[in-house]
Amino acid sequence: MTKVNETIIKVNQQFPLTIKRLGINGEGVGYFKKKVVFVPGALPGEEVVVEVVNVHPKFSEAIVKKVRKRSPYRIKAPCPVYEQCGGCQLQHLRYDQQLKEKRDILIQALERHTKFTIDDLDIRETIGMEDPWKYRNKSQFQLREMNGRIVAGLYSMNSHRLISVPECIVQHPATNKVNNAIKKIFEDFKVPIYNEKTKKGIVKTIVTRVGVQTGQVQVVIVTAGEKLPRKEMIAEEIKKRLPEVVSVMQNINPKQTSLVFGDKTLNITGKEYIDDKMNEFTYELSARAFFQLNPEQTVKLYDEVKKAAALTGKEKIVDAYCGSGTIGLWLSEGAAEIRGMDVIPESIEDAKKNAMKHGVRKAKYETGKAEDILPKWLKQGWHPDVVIVDPPRTGCDDKFLKTLLKIKPKKFIYVSCNPSTLAKDLQAISHMYEVKYIQPVDMFPQTAHVEAVVKVELKKVTPT
């Protein structure tokens, strides 16, 4: 029986397909002979003819050969390299519909990974942007030399083919301007660009971050080794051509890895950080410090965290995976005390500086894992009322969730950037905690990413 099933779908096979929904990566999802087929670029409600390009045991991947029935929400993507570049997935879907589909992606993850009755959950409408373009305050563009010219851009989806992106329309214009000018400076100074195949050359990546409210720009030149010839002259030229650049750093990453940054960062010229503002808060951002990529939506996201926490001034708060302390500071006015932790030492230094600068004396930050530090604080007699977590895409560490269940804070606020890991984590604590509501927030318009703020409360009667 299994062998018969395996021969149902073959590579290069073509067939008609009705797209039922969007997958977690923004691709269309349909079913052929009860088998799941993923089709990038296809939209829910469309009838398409597809050609199979990959067959896996549980699903197949296909490309669109013809659209027989178009979605009423399909539009022409405004970016000229949209179909080659892997940065965005939904530019061809009208924005109001993107918001609805993102809520649906969240619901699908909950259906797949939890035992919740979805109709009983309060899953709110996605909070979007008024102008869903030019929002990203940071770019990480790989460099390559092609025909004597330096190309900066992003890798095409599932490949190592670099697509030149001179004007990215989801990037803040300042980052585009700075990247193009630095490419020209590198060409003028004949800076050797790193070649992955030959392992020769020096510069791998340009990372550019702009303080949207302050206008300050930081450039990080990521190199394969510590040597960067004439780096002071290059830095001076950057300052001359780009007065908005107040910080030029060098990060050394000798490893063959998908991670952009290595462990060592040097200051070439200017400050070691830039400032940015959100509402009344000013944040110092060093090269490797985490900071949300869409400040306008971050204000909405953090305001949702504040609403969910509903502080009275008496609560002790833990800001786990705290980065540079942004969420804790946002809630500081209503808290009796804030404690945070993060595994990146530079982030903790930034968090301490940010707290001091804003006169928040009731904040304490430590470098390390939440699952190690929380039990230590508990032994010292310190018990949190509210735990806020904003973990990476991999979700919360199992040890952290077990620690949470032992500590039993009254409220747990989960800020998620990955619906699948969110759903799994909520299921893991569901015997003791109740989901009050889920508020999706669109932090990355034109992509398939969806964030969510989840208010979770300790059940009144915990099972013995």
The number of strands is: 21
Characterize the biggest β-sheet: 7 strands, mixed
Tell me roughly what share of residues is in helical segments.
10-25%
Global structural class: alpha/beta
Strand content: 25-35%
**Low-confidence regions:** 1-5
Cα shape: globular
Computed Rg: 24 Å
- Cross-sheet strand order for the largest sheet: 8-7-6-9-10-11-12
Number of helical segments with 4 or more residues: 10
Q: State the separation between the terminal residues, measured CA to CA.
A: 46 Å
Mean model confidence by pLDDT:
93
Pfam families: TRAM, tRNA_U5-meth_tr
Binding site for S-adenosyl-L-methionine: 292, 321, 342, 390
Active site: 417
GO biological process, one term: rRNA base methylation
Primary descriptors:
7-stranded mixed β-sheet; alpha/beta; 464 residues; 21 strands; 10 helices
Mind explaining what this structure looks like?
The chain is of the alpha/beta class. It has 10 helices and 21 strands. The protein has a 7-stranded mixed β-sheet, covered by helices on one side. It has a 7-stranded mixed β-sheet with strand order 17-16-15-18-19-21-20, sandwiched between helices. Strands 1-2-3-5-4 form a 5-stranded mixed beta barrel. A hairpin with a 3-residue loop joins strand 4 and strand 5. The N terminus is likely disordered.
